[in-house]
Amino acid sequence: MGILETERLIIRKFFRDDWEDLYEYLSKESVVKYEPYDVYTEEQCKEEAINRSKEEEFWAVCLKETNKLIGNLYFYNGGPKECSTWEIGYVFNPIYHGKGYAIESVRKILDYGFKELNARRVVAMCNPKNTASWKLLESLNMRREGHLRKNIFFKYDKEGNPIWNDTYEYGILKDEWL
Ligand SMILES: CC(C)(COP(=O)(O)OP(=O)(O)OC[C@H]1O[C@@H](n2cnc3c(N)ncnc32)[C@H](O)[C@@H]1OP(=O)(O)O)[C@@H](O)C(=O)NCCC(=O)NCCS
Predict the structure, then answer these.
(1) Is the minimum distance from the CB of 128 to ligand 1 under 6 angstroms?
(2) CA of 101 to the centre of ligand 1 (A)
(3) If DSSP codes are grouped into helix, strand and coil, which group holds residue 153?
(4) Does the beta carbon of 154 sit less than 6 angstroms from any atom of ligand 1?
(5) Does pTM surpass 0.90?
(6) Is the beta carbon of 36 within 6 A of some atom in ligand 1?
(7) Closest residue to atom 41 of ligand 1, CA basis
(8) What is the pLDDT of residues 30-69, one digit of tens each?
(9) Residue 143, pLDDT score
(10) By the 8 A CB rule, do 61 and 69 touch?
(11) 159 C-alpha to ligand 1 centroid (Å)
(12) Edge to edge, what strands does the sheet with 121-126 contain?
């Protein structure tokens, strides 16, 4: 896992002392609304930063100018290795939304994946209600390949029933990217 650099950002592995910056956004309801988890406590963020520092799939996105950690990427070859299909995910601190940081970092890691990790295909999943997320994917020319109806739930309603969500599936192939 190397260090990636863009015009404004450094994209690097997590360190255990990143927990405070992680807590700044994972503790917000608006941030985890479409994620498969609830808001994190300080304790959970300490553990999460340690876990992420040992894993390859989470990347910390930091501002070059200040070193502030403003969000994270998830990039993982989770299926059979010979399929070379990587999944991309991203979560950013809302203070830094709307400035193009998420797009800039996702563009960089896609490029790294296709050119350096020999990814053949990259996919992403998101809730159709998460407009900011699928707009980001479409601005990177990822193609909407599926709309799954009420296929997944992450949370329960007050009566304890699963809240079923639709999923948009996006994909892009190496030749399309290059
Ligand atoms: C999904 C998420 C990362 C998108 O963040 P974002 O702030 O919309 O993305 P960016 O930082 O790339 O900003 C893009 C916006 O900045 C604008 N922008 C401003 N300066 C820009 C620049 N220099 N370059 C590119 N875009 C710029 C773009 O026009 C775009 O605005 P628009 O959405 O009105 O078209 C963010 O909403 C998030 O973290 N949500 C919570 C977690 C989540 O739901 N993750 C996805 C789960 S599937």
Answers:
(1) no
(2) 7
(3) strand
(4) no
(5) yes
(6) no
(7) 31
(8) 999 999 999 999 999 999 999 999 999 999 999 999 999 9
(9) 98
(10) yes
(11) 34
(12) 4-5, 9-12, 58-63, 69-76, 85-92, 121-126, 162-173, 143-156
